Amino acid sequence: MVIPCFRGEASLPELCDRLVRALEARGDTFEIILVDDSARPALWTCIQGLCAGDGRIRGVQLMRNYGQHNATVRGFRHARGRWVVTLDEDLQNPPEEIAALRARAEETDADVVYGIPQARQGPGWRTWASRLIMVIPRRVMQVDFDISAFRLISGPVAAEVARSERHDIILDIYLSWVTDRIRSTPVRHEHPEGLRSSYTLRKLVQVFFNLLFNYATFPLRLASVGGVVLSALSGLAGVAVLVSKFTGTITVPGWASLAIAVLFSSGVTLLGVGILSEYVTRIFLQINQKPQSVVRAVTDEREARAPGPRPTGAAASGSPHGHGHR
Length: 326
Hints:
Blueprint: E1 2-5, H1 12-26, E2 32-36, H2 41-53, E3 57-62, H3 68-76, E4 83-86, H4 98-108, E5 112-117, H5 124-141, E6 151-154, H6 155-161, H7 171-178, E7 182-187, H8 201-215, H9 218-247, H10 255-287, E8 295-298, H11 301-305
Parallel strand pairs: 1-2, 2-3, 5-7
Antiparallel strand pairs: 3-8, 4-6, 5-6
Helix pairs in contact: 5-8, 6-7, 9-10
């Protein structure tokens, strides 16, 4: 289990308890990796307490808040299982549903299985915003279902993703670059009382732009198509101006042609410059090697000495897209 944590002091004890009971009931060998992506002492203290109470729970503390996907990839580097499951810390993804993911993977020989909520619970505007954001990864990943933070991933695929050092990684799209055996299965979705998402409207917009400009070529094609269309319209407008000139309709010489030229050329230029600036910004950050994440501490000293990608073993268990992170 790889769980990126942001402010889960209240939910983590119950989540870990339910995970342990659900996996023990199945007879699975497992480990739970809690990645502290908050840089807050209270959360790390909670994680340390859980690790002290059960040796199968391990904690990884990051230097600062790097984001949900970066924290999840960091967790992959400490995972040793044949299967890895990711889920939110806020109990929206019921641990009891992991069995459904595993069954679907074995039935379809899939490398990745997403747990899709049968009925999402939460604010209506957030549901619609999430659906809008999901349009891009669905198109890039070439899948016909919405993705979620509740995933079952094979160990080899998780190990390959763990090699990535991209600071702006979108985990789901990267998974589709590694394998095309991606499936989904319906699961129960819960909305605990008092749950407050860390994904504000501003952060949802930020996720949307990261998806749009990091993994899609649509904006560049839009600039090209828009330039062609606006140029064609400018040509038609120019013909109309000439006709008006010879028919005597225009009473102020040069005004119409000048207005048309300025408006259309400025629009095309600004559109192209704006789109290119988004890509140049991301290239700049990548060239400067902005770190994906940096570990401050781990609860297992052996992991502190060897924090890189781990070989997959015989058995173990393993979210904007989830609502429980920032």
